[in-house]
Automatic annotation (TrEMBL):
It comes from the Bacteria. InterPro entries: Glyco_trans_4-like_N (IPR028098). PANTHER family: BLR6297 PROTEIN, GLYCOSYLTRANSFERASE. GO terms for molecular function: glycosyltransferase activity. This is Glycosyltransferase subfamily 4-like N-terminal domain-containing protein. Residues 63-232 form the Glycosyltransferase subfamily 4-like N-terminal domain.
């Protein structure tokens, strides 16, 4: 997913509402080039300066925050984004009407110490960029994204200067940390403390799942200070123009997403090994689209299991190419293991599978079953063999697969970002005094 400019133009601004009330007076010389002057209206001020801060992934691939940016820009906000730089990203780019600033980072691939070093260097880079952007134009709203829950300290000086803070809780980080690093007591205490501070520092909390809403309320926020803003797709998905590789007679199982230790791709490799070596299914191949800190380890595992061309890694691809390849797959896999983290969120890949009308196999994940009911076939246990059985049930039973595909297509309209957009705008409106 490497590109330097988007090919669409932002829609015209909507009528002035309380959602864009904030503006800081400045001289014409200090205003960012191209930023519109403030316009007073009956219900507020148009053109607030919003800074979105992301630590865990490049904005180039962050579909949730791309949707947020589109919405804010369309409603008259001036948006800047700070995020890590992936290979091929520029230092600065215009994306969806926002000014995106990328900082260099080396993502940790080891344990807790490596992760802490990544966070320390990231915070230093983000703080320097925030200071520079504040000097160019005063920041009115800081929109902090997790994971991780470490960004609250750098928001404090700007909050003291009058900026409002939104905490966008994509995931429950204590549960995510336990899934990745185990349940060490000291780490659990640190993660809970950081989550508490992130929620308490914010003027408003956005949550991507009902579990996130419940957590924010449990941390002492009032109901009108928390808003559920689910993930959604920008537009109905359709196969792209990219031509898939030759397939021969093989059945293809697709995976798209991150490849980090907690994402279950190692489980998918073991399931593929079970299909190929135990069940003798050399007519099946797995296509794995994505990248992450566990990619090298998962590649080695696939090699150790002698999977050869039965398990194909493409690396990270532009979204349209990834979706084109996924659309060519027969069924899809969501191999995330069941734990308190995966039970409380819906992976974006599950939404993409359903939006493409694909049946997929998964483990018994509570929130995924609630949102993607009917499209997913739940494995009868949590093991590579159970995942392999569920995937092959979809492959070998055309009627079962058609039923799940029909359920997925029926879900598609409800998975669009348009259903979440009003909640985001209402949250911004609540920041008004």
């Amino acid at each position: 997913m490497m590109w330097t400019s988007d090919d669409g133009s932002a829609p015209p601004p909507a009528p002035i509402t309380r959602a864009n009330w904030i503006w800081s007076p400045m001289s014409a010389g200090s205003r960012r080039s191209g930023a519109p002057p403030p316009r007073r209206g009956a219900s507020g001020l148009r053109g607030s300066s919003v800074l979105i801060v992301i630590q865990n992934m490049s904005f180039t691939f962050d579909t949730r925050m791309q949707n947020v940016v589109r919405t804010l820009v369309a409603h008259g906000h001036r948006v800047r984004v700070i995020c890590p730089r992936y290979r091929g990203d520029p230092l600065r780019a215009e994306r969806f009407g926002a000014e995106v600033h990328y900082y260099p980072v080396r993502f940790a691939s080891g344990g807790v110490r490596a992760q802490l070093w990544e966070y320390a260097t990231a915070l230093a880079s983000i703080a320097a960029l925030m200071a520079r952007l504040q000097a160019q134009e005063r920041i009115a709203v800081i929109h902090l994204c997790n994971p991780p829950d470490i960004l609250f300290p750098i928001a404090l000086p700007f909050k003291a200067l009058g900026a409002r803070v939104i905490f966008d809780m994509h995931d429950l980080c204590p549960e995510l940390g336990a899934a990745r690093f185990g349940g060490r007591s000291w780490l659990r205490a640190v993660l809970h403390a950081c989550e508490w501070a992130s929620i308490r520092v914010a003027d408003h909390v956005l949550a991507a799942s009902p579990s996130g809403v419940a957590r924010a309320l449990a941390r002492g926020r009032k109901p009108d200070e928390v808003t559920l803003v689910r993930n959604g797709l920008a537009a109905p998905l359709a196969p792209g123009a990219a031509a898939p590789p030759p397939r021969g007679r093989r059945t293809r199982i697709g995976y798209v997403g991150n490849i980090n230790p907690q994402d279950g791709v190692a489980m998918l490799v073991e399931a593929a090994a079970h299909m190929v070596h135990v069940l003798g299914r050399d007519d099946v191949e797995v296509l794995c689209v994505g990248d992450g800190s566990a990619l090298s380890a998962v590649r080695r595992l696939a090699s150790d299991r002698r999977l050869g061309d039965s398990f194909v890694f493409t690396g990270r691809l532009p979204h349209d190419k990834a979706m084109a390849l996924l659309a060519d797959c027969d069924v899809c896999a969501l191999p995330d293991g069941k734990n308190p983290f995966t039970d409380t969120c819906v992976m974006v890949k599950a939404l993409e599978y359903a939006a493409l009308g694909k049946a997929f196999a998964c483990f018994d994940l509570r929130e995924t079953r609630a949102v993607c009911a009917g499209a997913a076939l739940v494995a009868d246990g949590e093991s590579p063999a159970a995942l392999a059985r569920a995937l092959l049930a979809l492959v070998d039973d055309p009627e079962l697969r058609r039923e799940r595909e029909q359920a997925a297509r029926a879900l598609a309209p409800s998975l669009l970002w348009a259903a979440s957009e009003p909640a985001l705008l209402a949250a911004y409106a609540r920041l008004a005094p």
